[in-house]
Amino acid sequence: MNTPVIQVSALTKSFHRHGQRGFVAVDNVSFSVPQGQIVAFLGPNGAGKSTTIDMILGLSSPDSGHVKVLGGSPQKATCSGRCQAVLQSGGLLPDFTVRETVQAVASAHGVRGRVKDVIKRWDLDSYARRKVGKCSGGQQQRLRFALAMLSDPQVLILDEPTAGLDVEARRKFWRIMREEADAGRTILFATHYIEEADDFAERVIFISEGKIVADGPIEKIRASVRGATVSAVVPGASAKDLAGLPGVKGISVNGDRITLDTTQPDDIARYLLNHTSAYDLLVSTTSLEDAFIELTNPRDGNEKDAA
After folding, report:
1. In the chain, N or C: fewer CB atoms in 10 Å?
2. pLDDT value at position 85?
């Protein structure tokens, strides 16, 4: 089995306040990410996303637990340029021009030959001579993307990557990220835009109050929350027989229309169409937003693993 590109093991991180009991921001968090996977890290404000990302990047140390990136320490992976990050703010010198910034970082990584291509790929040409401090928030964010790609990293860690971008810039960003993922890069991104996770991620990790509450493919997370409903007109059908089908959690009958709550909507729909006289069939699935709301509400909460 291949070694995970990112390995997070029992991470815990507290912040202590004057004379008060420490606030636990990350509480015994564990997960791993294999090479080439695209993972969305979702949770409400204050859930522990950014704190976890800081530890994955080696920007802060856990109270307990450990992190490995590309088989070694986070610091080694980031210093070598094999792991790069795009964070929400910081890291730019306001008195440098955009081009000077790209050239300086390229020199540090020994890749000056990539400057022209990176500037073009991230649409920096039109303001390459502008000082960074005079750039808009969206322009600065595109510059951060360009800097992250200079070293040709194997791993990209993105914290709210499209914050400050307009709709068209967001669309282009995700198009490029898809291309990078297709090339084999591993991408872990935290976002508030649930539709971005739904459209782009192969896997979602939900975190709430410092704990992972769900981790798995999007479809399985949807099913693990409330599943789906399959409704059809089935003349003369036996509700008792249908209730015994695999994955059926509940059934209701209104005349000839039967509605089944199920974790296996595709299988149930196929059965109804192939083995009964069903027609006017409707399938309704739980949205990722519904799952987000339910899973991140305060709870006693044990981790729910949808993988």
Report:
1. N
2. 94
Q: Tell me, what CATH number does 242's domain have?
A: 3.30.70.1510
CA distance 112 to 26: 39
CA torsion 71→77→81→87, rounded to 10°? Answer: 120
In the chain, count H helices and then E strands: 11, 14
d(CA 151, CA 84): 8
| Structure token digits, residue 160 | 């709210």
pTM: 0.75
For residue 79, being part of any structural domain is answered with no
What gap in Å lies between CA 133 and CA 256, rounded to an integer? Answer: 67
pLDDT in tens, 76-115: 999 999 999 998 766 799 999 999 999 999 999 999 999 9
**What distances in angstroms separate CA 228 from CA 106, 283, 291, 295, one per listed residue?**
50, 7, 12, 16
Domain for residue 61, yes or no?
no
Instruction: Find which of 125-129, 177-181, 182-186, 220-224 is predicted with most confidence, using mean pLDDT.
Output: 125-129
d(CA 191, CA 180): 18
Half-sphere exposure of 12 (CA within 13 A, CB side): 9
307, pLDDT greater than 70: no
